[in-house]
Write a structure and sequence with these properties.
two-stranded antiparallel sheet, CDP-diacylglycerol-glycerol-3-phosphate 3-phosphatidyltransferase activity, cardiolipin synthase (CMP-forming), CDP-OH_PTrfase_TM_dom, Four Helix Bundle (Hemerythrin (Met), subunit A), mainly alpha
Length: 203
């Protein structure tokens, strides 16, 4: 049986805020308002730091939903940022395609895990009920590194037109490193598979 938990924790609300900021950032980048975009991106990054800090230090704020919602918020934010930055000719198309493809597969895997860990009879209301905790997700180490590298590239790319270094060789090196960690992260999930999912037993 699944565990019933309160989904309205501070970390979960911060993750939802990050999801809400994603389209705002996309719009600002497409409109080439990079100065404001940098500020909004810093705010999104702050919500990411805070939700992790709070969940780690206050047991009452840690939830199974948060273990999925936090990386999901990161993936939505990163996907919109990379598409927008590619539209603005600041990140190459192949790199964005690679990142989006990996994230789509991971999000599909999360929905599959939710379905498989839901007790029968499986219903839509039970599936989408955030109070029904059935599994806790544990990202791999290289996946955490990859998320950090992807966000560093976003920050560097957003700052590039502001500080006039869009053609820097260091940005191109960062593109290659980001591609490498993205591929390594995808392989780590394929290799470790079930070890990244902890099924919750009912109390």
């Amino acid at each position: 049986m699944p565990q019933y938990e309160n989904p309205w924790t501070i970390p979960n609300m911060l993750s939802m805020t990050r999801i809400g900021l994603a389209p705002v950032l996309g719009y600002l980048i497409i409109e080439e308002d990079f100065n404001i975009a940098l500020g909004v991106f810093a705010l999104a990054g702050l919500t990411d730091l805070l939700d992790g800090f709070i969940a780690r230090n206050w047991a009452s704020q840690k939830s199974a939903l948060g273990s999925a919602l936090d990386p999901l918020a990161d993936k939505i934010l990163i996907s919109i940022l990379y598409i927008s930055l590619t539209y603005a000719d600041l990140i190459p198309v192949p790199l964005t395609y690679m990142i989006i493809s990996r994230d789509v597969m991971l999000i599909a895997a999360v929905f599959y895990v939710r379905y498989r860990t839901l007790p029968t009879p499986r219903t839509l209301s039970k599936y989408f009920n955030p109070c029904y905790a059935t599994a806790r997700l544990k990202p791999t180490f290289i996946s955490k590194v990859n998320t950090a590298v992807q966000l560093i590239l976003v920050a560097a790319s957003l700052a590039a037109p502001v500080f006039n270094y869009a053609d820097s060789i260091y940005l191109q090196i960062l593109w290659c490193f980001t591609a490498f960690t993205t591929a390594a992260s995808a392989y780590s999930y394929y290799h470790y598979g079930r070890k990244t999912v902890q099924v919750i037993k009912g109390r």
